[in-house]
Amino acid sequence: MSGELSPIDTAKFVAAKRAVQYVEDGMRVGLGTGSTAAWMVRCLGERVRSEGLKITGVPTSTRTAELARQVGIEVTTLDEAKWLDLTIDGTDEYDPDLCLIKGGGGAHLQEKIVATASDRMVVIADPTKGVDMLGAFPLPIEVIPFGLQATKGLVEELLAAMDVLDSKAVLREKGGVPFVTDEGNHIVDLHLKRIQDPRKLSMVLNQVPGVVENGLFIDICDAVVIGHGDGRVEVIDINEGTHEEERIEFADSANIFADI
Ligand SMILES: O=C(CO)[C@H](O)[C@H](O)COP(=O)(O)O
Q1: Phi, psi of 156 (to 5 degrees)
Q2: pLDDT per residue over 51-93, tens digit each?
Q3: Which of 45, 133, 204, 239 has CA atoms 20 to 30 A from the CA of 19?
Q4: In angstroms, what is the span from residue 89 Cα to ligand 1's centroid?
Q5: ipTM of the shown complex
Q6: What does UniProt list as catalytic (predicted)?
Q7: DSSP string spanning 134-151?
Q8: Which fold has domain 139-213?
Q9: What digits encode the pLDDT tens for the residues 141-196?
């Protein structure tokens, strides 16, 4: 990949480039999944190659593991790393409390385990991901294959009783067959009304037998780095209560790929 980036890719790139500044020598870093997280992995690889930064990455999917190795990041498992200093990941939505909907890429189970086992989670996003109230993006749940239709039916009944279901629960497909996660499970996407009480919904969903994990990330994200197409980044830190803006140089974006 080379040449001019589109405004949306510039936004993702500058968010990623700013976020990898949080990474210090010796850190164990959770590596998220998705197109924005892929920019972060490339930016981190660039720091490893050009600065000799020594880090261990814990990928949240086979896709991310493959890319991390390709760009020169040493990877290990969460069990080997035990605990992480930082996780950097993308998101499908973030709200003003930095609660998230994730799982658009079908990796939210590993992503949630990895982020929860980290001192700090930094989310990278473009401006389209910010919402006043979660729920415009369909909420993914990971469901085991056994009894899939029974689980899906029960979830639909529960959501209808709670008056949060907007249309329906849809089994995610890829290439005409059910999408299979890295854990060998399936994804059901829940088309909901705006989520008034994400904490309650998350707890209810995870009580249903057959549901492994839902895509709501509550009180897990510490900061969000929002990139813009003109190179500006906003950094919102929920713990510090700060909202800062700066500018990131993005003319070198093509160099990120030069040595790979
Ligand atoms: O949760 C995720 C994968 O499970 C992704 O982080 C989320 O879908 C955002 O992806 P992208 O950066 O491609 O928009």
Answers
A1: -60, -45
A2: 999 999 999 999 999 999 999 999 999 999 999 999 999 999 9
A3: 133
A4: 8
A5: 0.99
A6: 111
A7: S-SSPEEEEE-STTHHHH
A8: Alpha-Beta Plaits (3.30.70)
A9: 999 999 999 999 999 999 999 999 998 899 999 999 999 999 999 999 999 999 99
